[in-house]
Specification:
By secondary structure, the protein is an alpha+beta fold. It is built from nine helices and five strands. Strand 4 and strand 5 form a beta hairpin.
Amino acid sequence: MARYRGPVCKLCRREGVRLTLKGTRCESVKCAIEKRSARPGERSHGSPPRRRVSAYGIQLREKQKLRRTYGVLERQFRHYFEEAQRHTGITGEVLLQFLERRMDNVVYRFSFASSRAQARLLIGQGHLLVNGRPMNVPSRLLQVGDVVSVRERSRNVPPITEAVSKAGGRRLPVWLQTEADAMSGRVVALPTRADIDTQVQEGLIVEFYSR
């Protein structure tokens, strides 16, 4: 499975926002955005003013921000966009819905992992089930009624127990519902734009690919 292997804090600094790529670390004083406000390649003090960003540059940054937030490489992201164009509805919102329904994102939303990258790792190692069956494909798009659960033998795995114990401060989206045992959850609806807290202007991404 292809994935980005470079320093993830550098991605947050490049976009100038927290992308929550390191889970709880991003919410602490150790966050790279807090420690170093300058973007990669810029000096913190005495640097000349940044050049005016073109319309293309603004659209590109929004696309990169969304792609990096969900940990999707360019080819797959373009595939999601083309699929969104073929669906009924607003293209940008459908694109966000596809990304939210990815299994790695749903595992992260249920707080079975502290970040989407950790969720992909846990899924690949076979710790998660979908409707009672093993699932090791992080990009699987979940449907309404699907139940995601942690395998019985994996419920004491340190990354999972740590993520669950720290889940109190994270809000569960209304389109997801945690089961009674707290180690499983159900997709009860498709996410709407109002349900998605990702700070991005999806209209600019549509413009980027439509130019």
